Amino acid sequence: MSDHGHGHGHAVSADSDRRYLSGALVLLLSFMTVEVVVGVVANSLALISDAGHMLTDTSAIALALVAARLAARPAKGAYTFGWKRAEIVSAAINGLTFVVLVVYFVYEGIRRLIEPPEVTGLLVVVTGLAGIAVNVAATWLLAKANRDSLNVEGAYQHVLNDLYAFIATTVAGVIVWLTGWARADAIAALVVAALMAKAAYSLLRDSGRILFEAAPAGLDPGQVETELTAHPRVTEVHDLHIWTVTSGFPALSAHVIVEEGSDCHAVRRELATLLHDRFHIDHTTLEVDHGTPEDAPHPAHACTPCTPVKAGAH
Predict the structure, then answer these.
(1) Among residues 234, 274, 232, 279, which one has the least CA distance to residue 257?
(2) Which of 85, 113, 146, 152 is the most buried (most CB within 10 A)?
């Protein structure tokens, strides 16, 4: 028998999130095009690496928009949870994209440290300042969206890191412009690569935990089992599984053995309330049986079924 629930009444919030994501996407795509052109003209790896970082930003936002639409599809047929994990797949793709860019920009940055090319510092400074302004606007838009979603949070972190990268690029441009020390541009590119690596690690770690069905971060299954078995009528809990369907949607299933003569239906409701209040898990499937632990001489047996409820009754 089970007790489960998960809020789905967020259509208005989801529409707002899509507007914020779309606005940020238009801003970043427009500026990215300009930055690539200026980076090539100025021969600045820092600007081109920033554009590469911005490409991952726009990809993250575009994938977030697609995933949000997929995740909104109702559960149907074989997809009993719907397409809710689409956003997790998109987050993992963004993390892998970061890894590819990190490898390229570290290689190119080291090469330019050894043989620094001529860089037009003033163009880098002007473009960097414009990039800071654009990223501040995009960050503000994404900060207004629901960042409980791994997709939205990932997109936000991408743009925020890009803002830091533009600051580093602008500083490098000033140094090149005033002193002629072209290696500053390569160092700024390596800073951008480090920020990409940090973002990649976070995205791949968080999405990986969900894809491999690990317990939610910060939630100890051992502690959950201890809390469940502490119930005065519970003698054993086994086959305990805790996972995350998608961002903000933890789920749990377990087989619970209760003392003979206990009202197993009441115990189930009390355990479901405990899981909600103590661990914020709303989607629970608890099979509750009467009996003794599995290694005892008398096996557990199913409790008396609840009285059937007529269709349409509440």
Answers:
(1) 234
(2) 152
Give 140-198 pLDDT, tens digit per residue: 888 887 666 776 777 787 788 778 878 888 888 898 888 888 888 888 888 888 888 88
* Cβ burial 98-126 (10 Å sphere, 16+ → b, else e): beebbeebbebbeebeeebeebbbebbbb
Contact 145, 20 (CB under 8 A): yes
Enter the pTM of the model: 0.73
Q: How many CB atoms lie within 10 A of CB 90?
A: 27
- The amino acid occupying position 148 is D
The encoded tokens of residue 181 equal: 């020390």
Cα pseudo-dihedral 175, 180, 185, 191, rounded to 10: -40
Domains of the chain, CATH where assigned: 11-211 (1.20.1510.10), 221-302 (3.30.300.30)
Nearest to 6 by CA among 231, 283, 265: 283
